[in-house]
Amino acid sequence: DNDYLLMSDLDEVVKDDILRDVKENRHLTGICVLRLTLFMYNFNWKKIYDWPQARIVPVKMVNSIQACRDERKNFEFDYGKKNGFGGCGWHMTYFMTAEEIQDKLGAFSHIEYNIPKYTSLEHINECISTGRDLFNREKYDNDEKMIRSSKEDIRCLPEHIHILKERYTTITYT
Predict the structure, then answer these.
(1) How far apart are CA 121 and CA 32, in angstroms?
(2) Which one has a higher pLDDT value, 26 or 151?
(3) C-alpha to C-alpha distance for 19 and 142, rounded to whole angstroms
(4) 90 near 37, Cβ under 8 Å?
(5) pTM, two decimal places
(6) N or C: which terminus of the chain has fewer CB atoms within 10 Å of its end residue's CB?
(7) CA separation (Å) from 132 to 37, 45, 103, 116?
(8) Could you tell me which of 31, 80, 79 has the C-alpha nearest to residue 59?
(9) How far is CA 48 from its chain centroid?
(10) Which helix (H) or strand (E) holds 107?
(11) Residues contacting 49, CB < 8 A, separation 6+
């Protein structure tokens, strides 16, 4: 009766202590939102907002996974807002080479982004090196802007991510 389902993508890592707190202290009866620090391309760049898409849901209330993902308003507990910060973990999006990003853009369902303006290697490399959004969304939405990560952002990463840095060249930070 006290089992929970963690709903997140593979590039989202939730902090162990958050999971432990939910299991031991929250006794949720509804959806819990976990706000994650959103890193883009590598650990040098992060969005100015926290990614609010990871969820924890009591198993007994799960009728539809998609319904839980789509729920945007009726949260029992919003970890980030309730505590005044995100800090529930890390979302690492587009942690790929420019060529791999180009392939991804050609393969996913947002065909409006599968155009040379966005898929050229020159554009992708420019975005990676300057921290610009791939789709220029910062022009229309201030939340889409990226900032340089701080030493504290990097220090807070779990040890297993620091270890992966040695193995994967796209997991970089300076």
Answers:
(1) 39
(2) 151
(3) 31
(4) yes
(5) 0.81
(6) N
(7) 17, 9, 19, 16
(8) 31
(9) 12
(10) helix 98-107
(11) 38, 143
